[in-house]
Amino acid sequence: MAVESASGETAAPEQTAPPRRPRGRNVRWSIITAITVLTITSYLDRGNLSVAAPVIRDDLGFSATEMGVILSAFIWPYAIMNLPSGWAVDRFGPKILMTVAALLWSIAGAATGLARNIATFLGLRVVLGVAEAPLFPGAIKATNEWFPDHEKARATSVYIAATQVGLAIAPPITTALLLAFGWELMFVLIGALGIIGVLGWLLVYSKPEKHRRLSREELTYIRENQRTGGAEETSSAEVGRQWLRLFRYPTIWAMIIGGFCLQYVFWFYITWLPSYLESAQHFSLKAAGLLSALPYIAGGIAVIIGGRFSDALVKRGMRAMDARRRTIAGGSLLTAIALAATAMSSGPAMAVTLLTVGMFTYSLTTASYWALATDVVQTSTMVGSVGSIQNFGGFLGGAFAPIATGIIVDRLGGFVPALIISAALLLVTVVMYGVLVRRRLPV
Questions:
Q1: Which CATH superfamily does the domain covering 236-443 fall into?
Q2: 63, 207, 325, 352: least buried by Cβ within 10 Å?
Q3: What is the pLDDT at residue 17?
């Protein structure tokens, strides 16, 4: 494992041979399985309203504007609550926070089936956004406790890939349940899946030192190959002081800005890809819906590849923080090139191909984007906070992307300038992570 000097530079590796994985059962991967199940259920709860929206409008008489307000009610609470949720995860640990959060988002999702007016829908979507905010900070905290440095990005890539799976499977699953049982019971059934995920999490997770099924060999393997491992219990006041102190460091602001630009592009895909294929490339509605799945399929594969690539750099002796930030910068640069090429593409087939390539290269960054939070701090105490602050910036970008793209398309003459601006924002991401995120935080 590489050693970092006080100045932040990488010293010679302490070992030349890669660490050997323990034989037999590897309990740490059951933790990742439980997180992955929770991730998929959370994305089903996020996406089911979009599918049911036309039916709900017909049944309850909502206007398009009213439905739009309801659909957007999730995003802003989620973004804002990333900040305190990271603090809470660092203070109370991932088991408690993720259990409470998953129960709350499952109940809110199920209760949506009982809603009959705009105020109730808005309130439940706000609760859903608040409840889902601790998911990824908690997942990163758990990953940091359970995995050695050279496996963290690979482990993270599994449940991050589940977000792509969630985006791909949410429409067909939700549609099937809606057609079979109606929209009211559809919400209840998907909420019940979340309760099952919570039970699995409670059965599987505890701190490594307290886990009954963890062998001494696996615990040794985890701890001896970590720069930061399980954290000691920290007082609320101390976590609060350290949390505020994080905003003094240029590294944090570079991660916020870089995350904003990176997630802007992801939400450009999520919210505008079908419209681009229909209006700019003249595909039918059905064809656009089918072709929109291709980038997410490619992205799910790329998340795993990117995580393994980043971990391979660490195993070869590169400082973990450098492996993560360089993977992010490299993937962002390739995506910027793909989006700029899409803007200049000459035909529909080429545009779809380039957009799929762009999501593939974008997704190479995502495991490292989250794993970086575990490597940028010198101790594990503030891992959840750093991850949530970065994701706050990212989700602000995600919240602005749909609005900004609509304005750009209307006022600047279509999707070509929207694609060019997205590519330019990715160049900002390259600078943030490739140049400015260099020194670990002294907290």
A1: MFS general substrate transporter like domains (1.20.1250.20)
A2: 63
A3: 52
Q: What is the pLDDT of residues 145-177, one digit of tens each?
A: 899 888 888 898 888 888 877 777 777 788 788
Q: Which two tokens stand for residue 188?
A: 């209840």
Q: Does the pLDDT at position 54 exceed 80? A: no
Assigned token pair, 131: 């409840």
Do 25-207+214-226 and 236-443 agree at the fold level?
A: yes
The pLDDT value given to residue 253: 95
CA-to-CA distance for 280 and 258, rounded, in angstroms? Answer: 29
DSSP assignment of 184-198 equals HHHHHHHHHHHHHHH
C-alpha 260/C-alpha 429 separation (Å) is: 8
Bridge partner residues of 314 (DSSP): none
pLDDT at 92: 87
* Structure confidence at residue 185 (pLDDT): 96
CB hemisphere CA count around 117 (13 angstroms):
2
Stronger pLDDT, 363 or 174, i.e. the higher one: 363
Q: Which stretches of 205-319 are DSSP H helices?
A: 216-224, 236-246, 250-275, 285-291, 293-315
What residues pair up with 4 in beta bridges, in sequence order?
10
What pTM value is reported for the model?
Answer: 0.74
Tell me the CATH architecture of domain 25-207+214-226. Answer: Up-down Bundle (1.20)
Look at residues 22, 20, 18 and name the one whose alpha carbon lies nearest to residue 316. 18
Give φ, ψ of 228 to 5 degrees.
Answer: -130, 130
Closest CA to 170 of 39, 277, 365: 39
Please state, rounded to an integer, the average pLDDT across all residues of the chain: 85
Range list of H helices, 61-151: 64-72, 75-92, 94-111, 118-132, 135-146
